[in-house]
Fold:
Amino acid sequence: MSFREVLNSGKFVVTAEVGPPKGTDIKEMIHHMELLKGKVDAINVTDNQSAVMRICSLAVCKIALEHGLEPILQMTCRDRNRIALQSDLLGANVLGIRNVLCMTGDHVSAGDHKGAKPVYDVESVQLLRIVDSLNNGRDMSGNELMGTTDFYQGAVVTPEANPLEPQLIKFEKKVKAGARFFQTQAIYDIEKFKEFMKYARRHPVKILAGFVVLKSAGMANFLNNNVPGIRVPQELIDELKAAGKEKALDTGMNITARHIRQLREEGICDGVHIMAIGMEDKVPEIMARAGLL
Amino acid sequence: MIITKKRDFQELMENIKGYRSFFLIGCSECASLCGTGGEPEVKAMREALEAEGKVVTGGIVAKTGCQVLGTKTELKKYKEELDKAECILVMSCGAGTQAAVEIFEDKPVFPANDSMFLGNMTRYQMFDERCSLCGKCILDKTGGICPITACPKGLLNGPCGGCKDGHCEVSPDIKCAWVRIYERMKRLDKLEELCETIIEAKDWSTSQKPRTLYTREEKKK
Structure:
């Protein structure tokens, strides 16, 4: 079953993030793909994440297909204008890539080419409309395509954004623009997430909760202080502290597994998206602890 | 107004190192308010150049340095000083510098300032950028706050995921443009309008360079 079919079947979906390497050595990345194969429903390939230049998402998605994994192509608006975005989308479609996650993209000032000219010719809402248009046989200027695309398009949302209202207005615009599924920023507070889901359920879209495994109390504090839209509750930080240095990662994995299990058992959302950030090899273990394998 | 910043003096000296004599042109408009090309700055530049062993043959503060014909007329009475100068140093914006380039076909013209942006003056010599001169105003749709300028990504349909406590991921000194727009639309009781409007991808052909505009009506004979 394809990612789209799995989501629509009502099965609890698991996707994992794969970050392309900086350079041409893809041995470790392939190893991670092999570990995830047959376990996750799709892998989500980042697009020069944090504005750090790496192998393009498109090439890695193609490699994923060759290794028997279903890819979700992340597309940001930071580096390409509307011509390049549409052209890459057509290219992705003919290569067999069927899922696309439309994002604005971290600003170049966050990355390793700070002098780059940021593009943002269009943004996430407009990119979703572009995908919808390509799916319907026309480019964004209205020109007819010789053969249409067949994308299942998604977007991102930050349930713990502060302030939340402007973020929700944008969420609704993304829904209107054709987003079928959403992947959230990392969540750590299930009760608060339930509140968001009560709201999100009013819209005809699938929601995958985002997870970033906590490796230590220090990391949790770092996320709280530096990453927009992430809030790790104090009780989890205390839990990590109490575990001690050696057991912190194991505890972090337990927390993630516990949360995923709760989301699935209570039917809170449609699936999860695990952003392992260099710990892709731990994803199967987390899934096992969550009762998903 | 056009916001200008004085070019670093050592860099300027490097730019003009092949020349000995100069005529200075400031501007009474934007550059004066920016403190980069008014009377005091032209005087200070003369002194600084002379201290470096250069000769300043003369100088003026043009009324509107970017107005080519007007500036040309103002310069007429400085013929002798201009003839003696090997080159022209312009203390206004890039438009003023290039007005001088048009006026002085046979003399090198150097900029003494760097041109920054179209700015609002918030306090004395404090400027910020609110308009990008994109050629097609969208302020009617965004509560009068321009996200093309106020958002580093120029987003047209709401904040990105980088908004942290109402501030921008690019710098905590920048308040999120879309939080500002949201707050203003809320105050004006226009949130519904904000939610319902998806702003289309911008037609950037309105800012295709170089732009020209002719609005004068030719007199009928």
About this structure: The domain at 3-289 of chain A is CATH 3.20.20.220 (TIM Barrel). Chain A touches chain B at residues 77-78, 82, 103-104, 106-107, 109-110, 118, 120-126, 129-130, 140, 156, 158, 161-163, 165-167, 169-170, 172-173, 176-177, 185, 227-229 (CB under 8 Å). Chain A has ten helices and eight strands. The two ends of chain A are 17 Å apart (CA to CA).
